[in-house]
Amino acid sequence: MIAASPNKLPDKQRTIFVCQGTGCTSGKSVEIREALEKAVAELGLDSVKVDFTGCHGFCQQGPIAFVEPEGIFYTHVAVEDVPEIAQSHLRDGQPVERLFYQDPISGEAVPYYQEINFYRKQQRVMFGQARAIDPTRIEDYVAVGGYQALAKALSSMQPEEVIDAIDKQLAEIQYADAAEAAV
Ligand code: FES
């Protein structure tokens, strides 16, 4: 059982994010999100928000859902799991341990997003902000620094400078790839 912490108290504001990327959607994550919205409303959990994200790059564990701010990460979620998640975790503050990620080497359950080795060992360039971005809201992307390079290119750079910057970036990527391949 996970020890209680201030973040897990039932009266704290929390959000459950359901992945709506292609892989998780094929596993009925849209239905899971809708069932969560219904369950949260029926339980009168005013401090709980149901939201969604794009892909987290871990589709084989999908459908994925996670709860912030504590970062509890659920794998292979089904519509049938929704009542337990809503009642046990979102209402009573007790996460559903049977839905935690199982580390394939240690066999241990890993409750927190940031403690999963798959994520800990990556520098997540493309998907790193997936936890903070609703893919239907461009404002979310802008809020985490999205389009800054485009704004800079359009507002203060000459065409030749843009080409040079892209060439330089490509060279750095190729160098990094070559260095990694040599390890
Ligand atoms: S689609 Fe959900 S993790 Fe990739």
Short description:
The chain has 183 residues and is of the alpha+beta class. Helices cover 39% and strands 13% of the residues.
Structure commentary:
By secondary structure, this protein is an alpha+beta fold. The protein has two domains: 5-132, 3-Layer(aba) Sandwich (Glutaredoxin), CATH 3.40.30.10; 147-182. It is built from seven helices and six strands. It has helices at residues 22-26, 29-42, 82-91, 117-120, 138-143, 148-156, 159-182; strands at residues 14-19, 48-53, 65-68, 72-74, 101-102, 109-110. A four-stranded mixed sheet has the order 2-1-3-4, with helices on one face. It has a two-stranded antiparallel sheet with strand order 5-6. Helix 2 (29-42) packs across helix 3 (82-91). The longest helix is centred in the last third of the chain and has 24 residues, at 159-182. The protein binds FE2/S2 (inorganic) cluster (FES).
What tags apply to this protein structure?
183 residues; Glutaredoxin; four-stranded mixed sheet; 6 strands; binds FE2/S2 (inorganic) cluster
Task: Please identify the top-level CATH class of the largest domain.
Answer: Alpha Beta
Bound molecule types: FE2/S2 (inorganic) cluster
Gyration radius over CA: 20 Å
Fourth CATH level, the homologous superfamily of the largest domain: Glutaredoxin
Which helices and strands appear, and what pairs or packs with what?
Blueprint: E1 14-19, H1 22-26, H2 29-42, E2 48-53, E3 65-68, E4 72-74, H3 82-91, E5 101-102, E6 109-110, H4 117-120, H5 138-143, H6 148-156, H7 159-182
Parallel strand pairs: 1-2
Antiparallel strand pairs: 1-3, 3-4, 5-6
Helix pairs in contact: 2-3
Bound molecules: FE2/S2 (inorganic) cluster.
